[in-house]
Amino acid sequence: MMAPPKSIHDALVEQVRIAQGRHPCPSAASLDSQSVPTAVMVHEAVGYDSAKKIDGRKRFTLVDTLGLLIAVHGVAAHVPEREGAKQLLHKVNQQRQRLPRLVRIWVDAGFSGENFFRWVLDTFRWILETVLRPHDAQGFVLLPKRWVVERTYGWLHWCRRLNLDYERLPASSEALIHIAMIRLMLRRLA
Fold it and tell me: Which residues are 71's β-sheet partners?
């Protein structure tokens, strides 16, 4: 029987981290969401993201400091940031034995809120830290610690299949994202 993409992915993450001179388990991560349009024939878990003006799905992504995927969770695009993040963090907590060193997670302003931060700290013992854009900044600004998740979205953008969500189920989309990251990590290790 063939191993599922997630188990292969998780084994490769440890190997890439070791090859980069890092501890196999990350101690910090970045969290963000990305809205993607869905194909016409997709009808399950689809919604409208009024902020991005996209009818489709939202991917909540947690990556380590190298930009390697820790977890991804797909939901309808109308799901608020904090609610989708809660779902993703519950998913990450289920694999806690794989992430014993995880302590800090960087987020953008969309995830901010004292109640949400307290809930994450009380529930999972993880510290959320908001990385804000400077008030006087104009145009593109590289945000420290947060740019790695944006770079990961850039890597995924090179996989045409992921630019538009064609999958009937969000779980299928998540599996394709894991496969795309497996491909990227295998190229790094080769």
Answer: 62
Q: Which CATH superfamily is domain 25-131+144-184 in?
A: Ribonuclease H-like superfamily/Ribonuclease H (3.30.420.10)
Q: Are 149 and 65 in contact, with CB atoms under 8 Å apart?
A: no
Quote the pTM value: 0.92
- Is 23 exposed, middle or buried (CB count within 10 Å of its CB: 0-12, 13-18, 19+)? exposed
Residue 3: half-sphere exposure toward Cβ, Cα within 13 Å: 11
Question: Over its length of 190 residues, how does the chain's per-residue pLDDT go in tens digits?
Answer: 456 778 899 999 999 999 999 999 999 999 999 999 999 989 888 999 998 999 999 999 999 999 999 999 999 999 999 999 999 999 999 988 889 999 999 999 999 899 999 999 999 999 999 998 888 878 877 788 888 999 999 999 999 999 999 999 999 999 999 999 999 999 999 8
